[in-house]
Target: KilA-N domain-containing protein
Amino acid sequence: MRTTAQAKDGDFFISDWLRNRNTVKYLGIWESIYNPLFNYGEFAVIKSQAGLNSYKISVKDWVEKTNAIGLKATAGRYGGTYAHPDIAFEFGMWISPHFKIYLIKEFQRLKDEENDRLKLNWGLQRTLAKVNYHIHTDAIKENLIPSEITKQQANSVYASEADILNVALFGMTAKQWRDTNPDKKGNIRDYTIIEQLVVLSNMESINALLIQQDLPQNERLIQLNKVAVTQMKSLVENKAVKKLK
Model:
């Protein structure tokens, strides 16, 4: 960006701007951020003299002494002083209060536009989150809610009451789970979620009552499976249970 030095109330030369102590500080901070080859020794000397009546420096001297990259002066027909936009804006605000006000208002306008876009994006994200929640809920239902047991499962004889509960809720015995998951340690119940643990606890109580009623094993399995299906459908959408996670 080419830096001009013309203002309504008179001509301000860039060398006058460079004499300003605040200008030197600003340029030094900018160069320290963007210029790894900046000469801090020479900069310290210039900074100590900035603001004095006897102090004067040109862009060419500034660049040669400090190895600055933010300003550049060229000679010739198309020559002039060129500056990085950050520095050109600083110069513009120094020579013109009108420009400073314009720059501030433009910055505010851009921030308002950005905020409007963010609000729109946030609204879109909330909408997508709601859609994804329903997709996630459907996935939970599909994968966690037990299937109705088959006739073969109902007619099988199970070695323990624990396996009856496992088949009713998980669709398989502990041994079948171990055979299916040889790389996992522990047992099937070590990998349950809160909803399944709640249902399992309820099923244990219900199974105890069914045993007291002398129901055959296969009938108890069918009853317990119905309980598992019904309760899991209810619990996967229960907000109180979600708070426990």
Observations:
- The longest strand covers residues 71-74.
- The chain has three domains: 6-95, 97-144, 146-242.
- Residues 97-144 form one domain.
